[in-house]
């Protein structure tokens, strides 16, 4: 597919929007790629002479971000490592405690995330079913902390998968929570479980696309991979159906 989609595709996708596709895609990229608030994105665009309100940026993020994320997921399906790390983090929403269940692979790529009101076997099963449906394969190894709900759910849905349950082995998943925590602080906490789920469902795939593992690359290789990644992003943002 050409990185520059035909004009008619772009016209249909961004029909009835006052701003061109490139500006909308750039605003959404800024919001999900970096730990910026909606007002930060508004200011960055204003500095470039683009007058758009933070409310409009929020609407773009919700409307187009989902399509971008789904396109990234389709491209990456089946390409993740076969060692899965599962963990859950507490999210306080309007005084009520929720758990954000998340799974990453051995390289730190986000496999999926699901916010739930319970921290039990039923919740663990729901996450695992979502993972199996989304990835299309079962893992070779599953690593979790010592929460017994994981083992109970795993024995029911993936009995043949090796399960390692030890808090010290699961640093990969626990460290991956930091990006969500930074965004949670920037947003002054999530306003609802639905908003949280919508955000993490978009943020995870986009974060994966730009997870370049820079420390293992020389500068020239990093620049080449970054340029290729940006070309993929432009292709996705300007050609994926909304």
Automatic annotation (TrEMBL):
A Pfam family: DDE_Tnp_IS240
Domain DDE: 83-210
Keywords: DNA recombination, DNA-binding, Transposition
Superkingdom of the organism of origin: Bacteria
Record-linked InterPro entries: DDE_dom, IS_Transposase, Transpos_IS6
Protein name: IS6 family transposase
């Amino acid at each position: 597919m050409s990185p520059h989609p035909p004009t008619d595709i772009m016209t249909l996708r961004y029909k009835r929007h006052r701003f061109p596709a490139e500006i909308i895609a750039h605003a959404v990229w800024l919001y999900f790629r970096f730990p910026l608030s909606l007002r930060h994105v508004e200011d960055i665009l204003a500095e470039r002479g683009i007058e758009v309100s933070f409310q409009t940026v929020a609407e773009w993020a919700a409307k187009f971000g989902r399509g971008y994320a789904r396109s990234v997921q389709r491209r990456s399906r089946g390409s993740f490592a076969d060692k899965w790390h599962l963990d859950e983090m507490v999210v306080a929403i309007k005084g009520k405690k929720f758990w954000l269940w998340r799974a990453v692979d051995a390289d730190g790529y986000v496999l999926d995330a699901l916010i739930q009101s319970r921290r039990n076997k039923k919740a663990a099963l729901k996450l695992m079913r979502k993972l199996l449906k989304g990835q299309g394969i079962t893992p070779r190894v599953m690593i979790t902390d010592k929460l017994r709900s994981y083992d109970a759910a795993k024995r029911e849905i993936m009995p043949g998968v090796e399960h390692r349950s030890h808090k010290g082995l699961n640093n990969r998943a626990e460290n991956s929570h930091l990006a969500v925590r930074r965004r949670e602080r920037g947003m002054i906490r999530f306003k609802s479980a639905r908003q949280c789920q919508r955000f993490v469902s978009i943020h995870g795939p986009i974060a994966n696309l730009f997870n370049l593992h820079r420390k293992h690359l020389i500068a020239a290789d990093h620049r080449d991979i970054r340029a290729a990644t940006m070309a993929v992003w432009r292709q996705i943002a300007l050609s994926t159906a909304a």
